[in-house]
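Most newcomers find our protein records easier to grasp once they have seen one. There is nothing in a record beyond a sequence line and a structure line. Getting from the letters to the tokens is the skill we practise here. An example says more than a description, so a record of this kind follows:
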Amino acid sequence: MTAHLVGTEIRLLFREPLVLVVSLMFPVLLMVLLLASFSGDTDPVFVGLSGTEFYVTSYLAAAIAAMGFMGTPTHLAGYRASGVLRRFRAAGLPAGALALSQMVVLGVLAVVGAAVMLALAYSGFDLAAPVSVAGVAVGFGAGVIAFAGIGALLGSLLPSARAAQGLGLLLFFGTFFVVGGGPPPGVLPDALNTVAGWTPTGLAVDAIRSPWTGDGLDVTAMVALGAIAVAAYALAVRRLARD
């Protein structure tokens, strides 16, 4: 049942290209713009990295956060507004299966976005390979699971697709631009960097960047992302079961 639902969800998403463009292509285009401007820089404001490594690792997290904050909530909230969630419940579809399908779809789309980013970065900006490919994959996966839970929770709570789009944009841009999507941490106040580092987006950036640069898995970020995933998924399933 879940596999069939995942296939259906992916087909439906491709019938809504605007969601895909906003959720995936915008981070890709912005990453390319920043790499074109800062790829050769090794300024200390980039936390000891090259501009290329700094922004690529940041935008890999963006591929996840964009779907978790905007794509998934908008999709689920649209289901609520159109009565699809009620029909799912009437058909006996478990809320857990619906939430799980959203997690799989988010993962697929985040991987597609990340693959496009890496292809562009390696082909045009001389990106160095990560120290630990496996570690980066684990960190990326932890981010996917956490943001899938966040996306399902937001989609289960918000009353309409319009509300989900508005809040999603606020959450995405409000967190991402202060954790590496815009100005580097070296030019921001220390207090802001500390707070931003504990947001889900900041944790995802740390989980991906740490093994990329050879610092190993960021255990704190991994545990925090796991806790977010469990809490958000449980709350989302409970809420979806009542719709």
